[in-house]
């Protein structure tokens, strides 16, 4: 019996090891010997707590004038996925950084769990600015924002309303509004959009009548023969040791999946409308030139005012920039924030 269990475990481990691709220095859970990490939490403007991790060099010495960066995680993820990695790498370069869980996700408050509210997601970036600016060691005039994947659109949304964010960078950005309205490369028809809204509305009836919450989209829990290349790309990160993480209070089955009845809130989310008003604050859009999401960075770049830069990582796909340390352009980010938050 024991032997059998052991061989099943071995088989499982072999299968999951085969599934993950650790090339180009994939290191999602990287910890730096040079950097202190402290769990923190702070209130949003709506009096809900936002959870984060604060990172800074162990030998940091900048009494009250440190530059700081708020870092947001991919949509469906939590701060332990990609955001902590970027925050750690930038802390090594001398920035104070804070990775945040967006509301309804991870250790941040908000019900229902895995709920969607793009306004409250953007608010979390401003709440992090409140927090950093009241710590005594951060210069209020030197705070920037960095959003990965969906958070790229949330930090832009925040920056339009909050000029305290002095410089904005995105990596592998997903415009969650455009994605929900149009699909990738405008693959979704108006009829499909209406069907999605109708399904969410029907589910709302179910919930108000006392039925169970349902979840949607996100990363497949199991691959099938029909799984698309994009589904496999996400699975390799979110469903293997490479990047999987289950926050307290969630379960592996629920991670990455927003609730079906709130997901349609993204349909009314237009983060690039008015993006030019962020100028003259600088913007940097980073994308792999092979990324299935590259249309969003191109669109944002074309609409943004000056100064702006579209930085292509040759050969990189969308998820590659979540954790592959040999592809994430930390040096470019360091120069960007070093200059713009000088
Ligand atoms: C692993 O990922 C890298 C980076 O995306 C890619 O170039 C390579 O083809 C992948 N390897 C396999 C076996 O899928
Ligand atoms: C910190 O910086 C100040 C001013 O730059 C300097 O006077 C002080 O000696 C430094 N402290 C340490 C511990 O390095
Ligand atoms: C850690 O700090 C040491 C001493 O300052 C430095 O030589 C090293 O490059 C740092 N490592 C990283 C990864 O930043
Ligand atoms: C794959 O797609 C085919 C054709 O749409 C369908 O008949 C089949 O059930 C699907 N298989 C799985 C495992 O989803």
Automatic annotation (TrEMBL):
<dbReference type="InterPro" id="IPR029058">
    <property type="entry name" value="AB_hydrolase_fold"/>
</dbReference>
<keyword id="KW-0378">Hydrolase</keyword>
<feature type="domain" description="Xaa-Pro dipeptidyl-peptidase-like">
    <location>
        <begin position="64"/>
        <end position="216"/>
    </location>
</feature>
<dbReference type="GO" id="GO:0017000">
    <property type="term" value="P:antibiotic biosynthetic process"/>
</dbReference>
<dbReference type="InterPro" id="IPR000383">
    <property type="entry name" value="Xaa-Pro-like_dom"/>
</dbReference>
<dbReference type="GO" id="GO:0016787">
    <property type="term" value="F:hydrolase activity"/>
</dbReference>
<dbReference type="InterPro" id="IPR051411">
    <property type="entry name" value="Polyketide_trans_af380"/>
</dbReference>
<keyword id="KW-0732">Signal</keyword>
<dbReference type="GO" id="GO:0072330">
    <property type="term" value="P:monocarboxylic acid biosynthetic process"/>
</dbReference>
<comment type="similarity">
    <text>Belongs to the polyketide transferase af380 family.</text>
</comment>
<dbReference type="Pfam" id="PF02129">
    <property type="entry name" value="Peptidase_S15"/>
</dbReference>
<feature type="signal peptide">
    <location>
        <begin position="1"/>
        <end position="19"/>
    </location>
</feature>
<protein>
    <submittedName>
        <fullName>Alpha/Beta hydrolase protein</fullName>
    </submittedName>
</protein>
């Amino acid at each position: 019996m024991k032997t059998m269990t052991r061989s099943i475990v071995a088989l499982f481990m072999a299968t999951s090891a085969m599934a993950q691709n650790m090339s180009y220095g994939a290191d999602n859970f990287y910890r730096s010997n040079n950097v202190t990490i402290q769990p923190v939490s702070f209130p949003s403007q709506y009096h809900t707590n936002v959870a984060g991790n604060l990172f800074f060099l162990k030998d940091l010495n900048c009494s009250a004038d440190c530059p700081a960066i708020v870092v947001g995680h991919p949509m469906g993820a939590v701060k332990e996925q990609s955001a902590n990695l970027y925050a750690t790498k930038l802390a090594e370069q001398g920035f104070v950084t804070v990775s945040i869980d967006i509301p309804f996700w991870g250790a941040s408050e908000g019900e229902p769990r895995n709920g969607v509210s793009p306004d409250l997601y953007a608010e979390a970036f401003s709440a992090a600015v409140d927090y950093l600016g009241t710590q005594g060691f951060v210069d209020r005039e030197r705070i920037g924002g960095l959003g990965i994947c969906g958070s790229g659109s949330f930090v832009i949304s925040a920056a339009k309303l909050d000029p305290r964010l002095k410089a904005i960078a995105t990596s592998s950005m997903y415009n969650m509004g455009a994605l929900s309205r149009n699909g990738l490369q405008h693959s979704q028809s108006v009829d499909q959009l209406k069907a999605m809204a109708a399904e969410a509305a029907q589910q709302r009836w179910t919930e108000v009548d006392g039925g169970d919450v349902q979840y949607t989209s996100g990363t497949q829990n199991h691959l099938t023969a029909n799984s698309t290349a994009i589904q496999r790309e996400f699975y390799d990160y979110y469903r293997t040791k490479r990047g999987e993480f289950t926050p307290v209070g969630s379960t592996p089955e629920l991670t990455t999946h927003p609730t079906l009845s709130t997901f349609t809130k993204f349909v009314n989310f237009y983060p690039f409308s008015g993006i030019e008003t962020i100028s003259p604050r600088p913007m940097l859009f980073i994308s792999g030139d092979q990324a299935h999401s590259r249309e969003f960075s191109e669109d944002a770049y074309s609409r943004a005012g000056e100064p702006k830069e579209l930085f292509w990582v040759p050969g990189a796909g969308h998820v590659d920039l979540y954790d592959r340390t040999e592809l994430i352009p930390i040096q470019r980010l360091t120069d960007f924030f070093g200059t713009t938050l000088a």
